[in-house]
Write a structure and sequence with these properties.
Elements: H1 2-15, H2 19-40
Length: 48
């Protein structure tokens, strides 16, 4: 899930005309998602 978010963030950085806004919000959302995954004990193999 985090990999998909980072891939979408990379594409958005290339396509958008405001990369600084995208980078700031993308890093914030990736951090929130990472914390949520760590605290929920959800593993990547459980999603397969």
């Amino acid at each position: 899930m985090l990999d998909a978010l980072l891939a979408a963030l990379a594409v958005s950085l290339i396509v958008n005309d405001t990369p600084t806004d995208i980078a700031g919000l993308g890093v914030l959302s990736a951090l929130v998602l990472w914390i949520w995954l760590v605290r929920s004990d959800e593993r990547a193999d459980a999603l397969d």
